[in-house]
Amino acid sequence: MFIERIKSEGLSQLSYLIGGGGKAVVIDPRRDCEVYLEKAAQLGCRITHIFETHRNEDLISGSPVLASLTGAKVYHGPHAAGKVKYADTVAEGDSFSTGEVRIDVLETPGHTDDSVSYVLSDQSYGEEAVAVCTGDALFVGDVGRTDFYPERAEEVAGLLFDSLQKLLTLDDHVYVLPAHGAGSVCGDNMANRDFSSIGYERAHNKMLQITDRKSFIAAKLDEHHYQPPYFRLMERLNLEGGKPAARTLVPMPLDLAEFQELAKHSALVDIRDVTAYLGAHVPGSLALPVGMLASFAGWLLKPEDELTLIAENATQAEAAARHLARIGFDNVQGYFALPMPGWAANGLSFESIPAIGVEDVARRVNEKPDNWQLLDVRSQSEVEGGVIDGSKHIYVGHIPVEMDALSSDKHYTVMCASGARATVAASVLLSKGVKNVDVFMGSMGAWKKAGYSVG
User: Fold this and answer.
1) pLDDT band (50, 70, 90) for residue 442
2) If we measure between CA atoms, which residue out of 334, 327, 333, 332 comes closest to residue 295?
3) Are 47 and 127 found together in one domain?
4) How many structural domains comprise the chain?
């Protein structure tokens, strides 16, 4: 029996190809699903079953696409918020065998009502469990978020507690195979590794140390999570079944004239590193570095938008198009890769954003100059850990809808934990007409390192 982990960077989504004996199953496939076919062929296996741990909110499921390519059936848990049109329903006690693999279903609701886990056994060695696919119920170092049913907040937090107790009845040696790793929006405290065991999580996962149900519920109710607008689209598509991604996700390269024409009616998305954007960028473009697309495109762009990328090269543009396709942003018109010196050499205007350091910010905080505001765009949980005196907090994803609270004539210094999200936020402010913006490079990390106090 083999277990192949397939990680989708950016989203930090984890899916699995599991098999042996000439047959294999796939757990939680992503939309661009050719990788499962390729790996199965390399391992001499045919994909016979496709299982989903829950209806994903943060990406488009590849299950209906993979089913059409393989003829395999798709299986999904009970109590989904509607009929999952492309899947059969499984329930606790159901069991499947294919090749060397046995799959037993556990219902583990809490993150969502339809959440299930799959206990895996190697039939060539016996019936003892080898691993468990826990979906978004149990992560490495954390547990699933429970904020998708605000009107039932206490109930679903309690359901997750019960589900975790069920998972903890498994033996310590059983591998934990979650649906996400560190960096995912589905948890705040995941470990920076994608592997663990029931025994290790039992001993070290802080949320599993809370053994009282009421205390666990209270801890979950005290969490702060954000839901980008595109989550609603993912939920709908993962009931109906999303269409396949484009056969090739390599965007078309654009010359200067083509780029200028597209710029008249499409959103300009600069996927270069934040330092490149700060140094020089096309006026009106948004800073969304390729590694941050999965986290913030859903806040700052609309799935129906036409997108034109500004990239360093074709490889970067392809990676960006792939990240965008996984969350339903398919309208990438092409990419423009002329370096900024070449742009300027053509007599075209460009903008830059000043980056300032900790001493400049400390001086402004102390002197409180007229018409200046330090804008903190970190998450609520980060802000609760300490703020700089006098700063105003607006989460980076909320800036487009919070512009009424900001003045276009004010001078804003934007900060986050390091300066990356601050650059994204600064680009939004500029695109909305704010005239005087700079970025606190190093941000809270630099502030604390320099020994300044936080409130």
Assistant:
1) very high
2) 327
3) yes
4) 3
Confirm whether 248 is domain-assigned: no
Q: Which residue has the tokens 């960006």?
A: 320
Element (H, E) at 19: strand 13-20
Q: Structural domain of residue 423, as residue ranges?
A: 355-449
One domain, residues 153 and 284: no
CATH number, domain containing residue 35: 3.60.15.10
pLDDT in tens, 71-88: 999 999 999 989 999 999
Global confidence as pTM: 0.90
Edge-first strand listing for the sheet containing 332-336: 286-287, 267-270, 307-310, 332-336
- Indicate the helix (H) or strand (E) that contains 134: strand 129-135
Residues 262, 143, single domain; the answer is: no
218-248 burial string, b = 16+ CB within 10 Å, else e? ebbeeeeebbbebbebbbebbbebbebbeee
Please tell me the predicted confidence (pLDDT) of residue 151.
96
- Residue range 311-368, pLDDT digits in tens: 999 999 999 999 999 999 999 999 999 788 888 888 889 999 999 999 999 999 999 9
| CATH number of the domain that residue 310 is part of | 3.40.250.10
β-sheet with 196-197: strand ranges across: 95-98, 101-107, 116-122, 129-135, 175-178, 196-197
Q: Please say whether the beta carbons of 103 and 177 come within 8 A.
A: no
Rg (CA), the chain: 24
**CA 316 to each of CA 91, 174, 226, 249, 253: distance values in angstroms, whole numbers, following the listed order:** 42, 38, 27, 12, 12
d(CA 435, CA 431): 9
- Residues 146-193: tens digit of each pLDDT: 999 999 999 999 999 999 999 999 999 999 999 999 877 777 788 889
How many angstroms separate the Cα of 390 from the Cα of each of 52, 274, 384?
A: 47, 26, 15
The catalytic position among 33, 133, 186, 416 is: 416
- Beta-carbon contacts of residue 223 (< 8 Å; ≥ 6 apart): 145, 146, 147, 188, 381
pLDDT confidence bin for 247, thresholds 50/70/90: low
- Examine the fold and report which residue of 281, 309, 341 is the final residue of a domain before the chain moves on: 341
Determine phi and psi for 273, rounding to 5 degrees: -60, 150
Q: Is 416 a catalytic residue?
A: yes
**pLDDT band at 455, cuts 50/70/90?**
confident
**Averaged pLDDT score across all residues of the chain:** 94
